[in-house]
Amino acid sequence: MPDKKNFLLKEENKLDKIDSELSNGRRKEEHLFIALNKDVSFKKTNSGFENYYFIHQALPEIDLNEINLSTDVFGKKLRLPLMISPLVGGIEITGEINKNLAKVASICGIAMGVGSQRTGIENTKTEKTYQVRDIAPDILLFANLGAVQLNYSFGIKECKKAINMIDADGIILHLNSLQEAFQHEGNHNFKNLLMKIEEICRSIDHPVIVREVGFGISKEVAGKLIKTGVSGIDVGGAGGTSWVEVEKLRSGSSIIKNVAESFSNWGIPTTESIKLVKEAVSKNNKILVIASGGIRSGVDVAKSIALGADIAGIALPVLKNIQVSIESCINYIKEIEMGLKIAMFGIGVLNINELKNTRYLKEKT
């Protein structure tokens, strides 16, 4: 005869798991709806690109058609230094979105990251919503998990599973402490994560990138991450999508909404974060620096690279364009590509390395 107490405990744990899966799916649906339909931008804080300008070279002494935008990242060549930042996954509608994004990445020759795979690991039925290798076998592709999950039963095994789930070239561990703080169901324990990130870096045979989701990485944090052995840092600066704003719109609590208002401009602007991270990695050129947070044009990408980034990441504009059509999204990437090339033409640089070392980007006074 089965032990009644143990049986009830198992059934209770099963119900908790079901509740967790439903909660994760509902949260993802709400995030997607809000991002696509509401104003979730920072209200006063800008990404900072407007504070910089290129000194125009009227005689560039180069042929526009000879400019080379390609760059090598982790052994794969990108046609232009751009990445579709982690966006979606885990619910049915996002499977088609990810496959369409992968088509765009493949056609345009850029990198891509998938949304947080926590749901895919906790519920294997959702794995397919992240899988895109059949669509884009050759793109630079990144898995993605919240770093805070390393304090909530995730570890080396789950990181490897996330990578294997989508046959990824590396994994992104995202930092979203402020977002979690405003979620009523958030994970708030960010203690001892550096030690656990270091363990992941030592234990898996793939590049590990740590990414902020929109509040910036400071020089101090970048320095600590470098010591853990990360392969890349995505600055995720303030000025684009505010996840505090997203959580404020999700919440039914007047307290959360009111407190969120006072954090509406919290964060390090993207341009400042690029500079701070670049200072931290200056003696270690092997570490990839990704600029993201409010990047909207090819000129923004050019400024990011001139400030010290290796590639740039774009999220919300890509998501909105893919909702229109694959063609619309491809055309948007082509606009980025054209803008980047003409910016380089305007200062007379032929390739990304020359852009990194240009002396023609100046800060407005």
Describe the structure.
This protein has 365 residues and is of the alpha/beta class. It has a single domain, classed as TIM Barrel (Alpha-Beta Barrel), CATH 3.20.20.70. 46% of the residues lie in helices and 13% in strands. The chain has 14 helices and twelve strands. It has helices spanning 4-37, 92-108, 118-122, 156-166, 177-181, 193-203, 219-228, 243-250, 254-261, 270-281, 298-307, 316-324, 326-347, 352-356, and strands spanning 52-54, 71-73, 76-78, 82-84, 111-113, 141-146, 170-175, 208-212, 232-234, 288-292, 311-314, 361-363. The strands form three sheets. An eight-stranded parallel barrel has the order 4-5-6-7-8-9-10-11, surrounded by seven helices. Strands 1-12 form a two-stranded antiparallel sheet. The protein has a two-stranded antiparallel sheet with strand order 2-3. Strand 10, helix 11 and strand 11 form a beta-alpha-beta unit. Helix 7 crosses helix 10 (270-281). The termini are far apart.
Key terms:
single chain; 365 residues; alpha/beta; TIM Barrel; 8-stranded parallel β-barrel; two-stranded antiparallel ribbon; 14 helices; 12 strands; 46% helix; 13% strand
Please outline what is shown here.
By secondary structure, this protein is of the alpha/beta class. It has helices spanning 4-37, 92-108, 118-122, 156-166, 177-181, 193-203, 219-228, 243-250, 254-261, 270-281, 298-307, 316-324, 326-347, 352-356, and strands spanning 52-54, 71-73, 76-78, 82-84, 111-113, 141-146, 170-175, 208-212, 232-234, 288-292, 311-314, 361-363.
